[in-house]
Amino acid sequence: MGFYDYSAEKMDGKEHSMEEYKGKVVIVVNTASKCGFTPQFKDLEELYLKYKDEGLEIVGFPCNQFASQDPGSNEEIQSFCQLNYGVSFDMYGKIDVNGNNAHPIYKYLKNEAKGALGNTIKWNFTKFLIDRDGKVVERYAPTVNPAKMEEKIKELLGNK
Fold first, then answer.
1. CA pair distance 35, 136, nearest whole angstrom
2. What CA–CA distance (Å, rounded) separates 94 from 160?
3. Is the distance from CB of 109 to CB of 128 less than 8 angstroms?
4. Which positions are annotated as active-site residues?
5. Are strands 56-62 and 7-9 parallel, antiparallel or unpaired?
6. Residues 6+ apart with CB under 8 A from 33
7. pTM tops 0.90, yes or no
C-alpha cells in the first residue's frame, strides 16, 4: 500500500482519501495546541499560502499522546488553530501516532521514513514530506522549523 491508499476523518467528521492529494507535494504533521512547538502552525501556514497554488498541501493530525498537549475536542482544536494561527490547510480528527492504536497512515509513514527513535514518533510536530508521486522523501524532527523545509519543497514542486 502507498500513501494514496489511506484515508482519515477530517475535522468535519467525514472520511477523506489521501488520493485527494495525488499529484501534490504534501507535508503530513502531527500537531498539538499546547506544545512549545505550537507556533510552528504559523510557519506551516506561511509555507502553505506561499506554495499552495503550485501544488503544496499540508495535512495536520492533532495528537494527544505527548504530555497530553492536545486534550481538546476536534472542534476546540480546529477553532484554536484558526483563531490563533489562521490555519487554512487541512486538519484531520485527533489520532494516535504511536502504539497499538496508531492510525494506519502513521504506521505507513513511520515505516517509510524512520527517525532517531526508529519507528516511533518522538514528539509533536514531526513532519513527513511526500512528493507528487506519493513517495515519502524526508522526515523532519519536531525541532526543525518548517521554514527549513522550503528548499526541498521548492525542489519537489519543480522550482529549483
1. 25
2. 35
3. yes
4. 35
5. unpaired
6. 62, 69, 70, 72, 77, 80, 81
7. yes
The three cell numbers of residue 92 are 484531520
Strands 56-62 and 90-91: parallel
Taking only the tens of pLDDT, the chain with its 160 residues reads 899 999 999 988 899 999 999 999 999 999 998 888 889 999 999 999 999 999 999 999 999 999 888 888 888 888 888 888 889 999 999 999 999 999 999 999 999 987 666 788 999 999 999 999 999 999 999 999 999 999 999 999 997 5
Orientation angle between helical segments 40-51 and 150-157, nearest 10 degrees: 20
| Residue type, position 110, single letter | K
Q: Please report the domains of the chain, with CATH numbers, ordered by start residue.
A: 41-128+137-160 (3.40.30.10)
C-alpha cell at 6: 489511506
Q: Give the span between the Cα atoms of 33 and 21, in whole angstroms.
A: 25
